[in-house]
Design the sequence.
């Protein structure tokens, strides 16, 4: 085999693995309302993983189109609704949440994604789970 073929094969394998790391991942959301007696743990999928980005340190030397900062985001999603148990009659006991069907590396869309890095919030229940 030629060295060019071997290097091309190794590069292709390395790139295909990094490109495939953005994928639906299992995630548990804990949902509770002040008026309701219980907390609900919901199993869903979110988009998570690695996307190739370009370093913006040379931003004065590069065109804006070369400064892509891609994130792992939804390609296809659907919404499901869950019923929170133990809610009084005057409270709406439903909670709608996104389910990732497929993911892609691309620009962050603020219509349905939080594109700002925040400090880590704890995802837990303060009320009993049912």
Sequence:
């Amino acid at each position: 085999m030629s060295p060019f073929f071997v290097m091309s094969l190794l590069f292709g394998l390395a790139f295909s693995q990094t490109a495939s790391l953005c994928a639906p991942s299992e995630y548990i959301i804990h949902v509770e309302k002040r008026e309701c007696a219980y907390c609900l743990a919901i199993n869903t999928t979110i988009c998570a993983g690695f996307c190739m980005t370009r370093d913006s340190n040379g931003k004065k030397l590069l065109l804006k189109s070369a400064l892509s900062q891609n994130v792992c985001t939804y390609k296809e999603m659907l919404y499901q609704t869950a019923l929170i148990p133990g809610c009084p009659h005057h409270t709406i006991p439903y909670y709608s949440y996104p389910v990732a069907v497929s993911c892609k590396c691309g620009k962050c869309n603020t219509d349905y994604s939080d594109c700002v890095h925040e400090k880590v919030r704890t995802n837990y229940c303060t009320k009993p789970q049912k």
